[in-house]
Amino acid sequence: MRILVGVMSAAVLATGVGAPAVGDVLDDTVESMVAAGAPGAVGYTRTGDERRHAAAGYADVARRERADVRQRFRIASNTKAFTAAVVLQLVGEKRLALDAPVSRWLPEVPGDITVRGLLNHTSGLWDPTTEKEFWASYLAGDRGYVYRPADLVARALAHARVPGYSNTNYLVAGQLIEKMTGRSAVSEVYRRILVPLRLADTSFPTVDPQLHGRHLHGYALDGRTDMTVFSPSYDWTAGAMVSTLDDLARFYRALFDGTLLRPAELAQLRTTVDVKGVAMGLGIDRLEVPCADGADRVLWANSGGGPGFGSYAFISGDASRQLVVAMNVYDIEEELSGRSPVPEGVSVARALREVFC
């Protein structure tokens, strides 16, 4: 799931005057998320090599444990950028071609779907997670219920095509990684990204519903229903990863500064297509922030939302500025009913202006 839409509209981003300094705005941002209804929120900014952190509210409501910037959280669809990076590395190694049909390697996939179509969500593959029935076992209390990625893909392929953003694209991308490398997609993410970047606080669970080590607890919108224990199996290479502010920021910096991708593949990552009003690249979106000087700043963004957790990551094209924010609230039942899964009033607009303008 992704939660960028709705928190950065033109109205929300309208330029203000007399704005406070970046550090103050970061504090204000996480505090405003808590005031809006998030049990806790944490944030990170970087300008050049200057980093700031902020935390507000509670990591564990029942125990009254304060939120801490070092705690882990589920990053949901931010996982897609890791998966896209591995696929693009395989493209750079000439083992895949972005505009080749996926059916060349996975014959069950319709022949008009390309590798690029998976990564920029133009394949039309149906997303089973948009249906209430999909979540029935979880919402009935079986938080450890396990879905197999192959079964989810088969379920999607048996359904009519539906244009737009879909988790299924990145499940197929995970299958493609495994087909091309002969290793698990999870092990490829570790081998190619987590280990070289020393992302020691980032993990990639596939069936374990527990969060380990220091972590935020995740909650539904009532702020009391604890959603921390939840099987990540349904999300796999589309959204199962766990990370921290610093690790997530380090990954996105490496993605855009040329550490992970060569120039040709980085250029492809930034090649966008309009998908229902969103400029989607390969695993990341392009945004424009209006600034007080009358010019727009281009930045790249991703977000993740899943039971109990929501997160946002933003970076400038030259990788010199970043903003990462996470909160421990996301209500899947509300989303399935057509309502906002996060508290009304949650916004990162002021922080975006101060970091990137």
Automatic annotation (TrEMBL):
Single GO molecular function: carboxypeptidase activity
SUPFAM superfamilies associated with the record: beta-lactamase/transpeptidase-like
Domain named Beta-lactamase-related: residues: 27-328
Keyword Methyltransferase among record annotations: no
Signal peptide: 1-19
Keywords per UniProt: Carboxypeptidase, Hydrolase, Protease, Signal
Pfam family, one: Beta-lactamase
Protein name: D-alanyl-D-alanine carboxypeptidase
Organism this protein belongs to: Actinophytocola oryzae
